[in-house]
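Morning!

This is the sequence you dropped in the shared folder:
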Amino acid sequence: MAQHSSSRDGKEKRRHARQSTSQPARIRFGEDAALPAEIRDFCETGLYVAFPGDGTPDAALPALTGTPVQVEFAVAHSGVFLCHGRVARIAPDGVGVLVSAMPEGALQALRGAGRRLARPLGSGLSAQQAQALLLECIGVFQGTIEAAMRDFFQQAVERLGEASQDEPFFLERSRYDYAIQDLLQQRSRIENAFFAALRDRIQQPGASAAPSRAPMASRLALVEEDEFEDWLNLSAVIKQIEQDILAPLNDVEQRYGRLIGMSVDRKSNPFGPEA
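The structure's back. Tokens below.
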């Protein structure tokens, strides 16, 4: 299924802090039939509603930014809540909904679902069982990361090769060819450094990512221009990657937070782009 941009410009529009949750719901676009879904996060003026299965169903694809939408969910001992809003963005596996007037009862119910989600997955297990479960999950995830690493190097070499062919001058082509050789020679070192950093972060759950390399305002005059440009470029890349994988990244943070029994965000997620 083709992927759809988060919004017209692909940027996050929500002004209030997101809170994770996990609440079954039904969503209705205009007068169409209601579709089963799950509210994954929320704030005072918005919801992110994900679809189970293989992603956004065909019935939701025609929905454009601004399409009226209703999100309905029920909570035991609290009642049924109906949120009226408009589509703010379409993602590969769900939609962002702008809700101008979120019912207070709905907010409280979603916060309660979020607190249940944040409970450690190993609740009721012995310390040994919880540790074994954590190690098993880490092993599964590491296999996924190793596959992603192989795919990264393959795509990097292919794209550098394509860029080289587009250059009309030999000198420019040779720079891309050299970059390919250098990347392949450094592959082992890059992989070892990456997995070592990942292991360190996993062993210290909740720890913040490495301190930002952003230059202090008082030191701007001492910072090399190239270094400052590198930092800006890296920050822009991190933000773009996070926007491109926003929904799965939120899902990983919620699940990992539940596993270790503490809140996980962009700064403390050992599997996130910033780390």
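Headline: Residues 253 and 269 are 7 Å apart (CA to CA).

More detail when I'm at my desk.
O.
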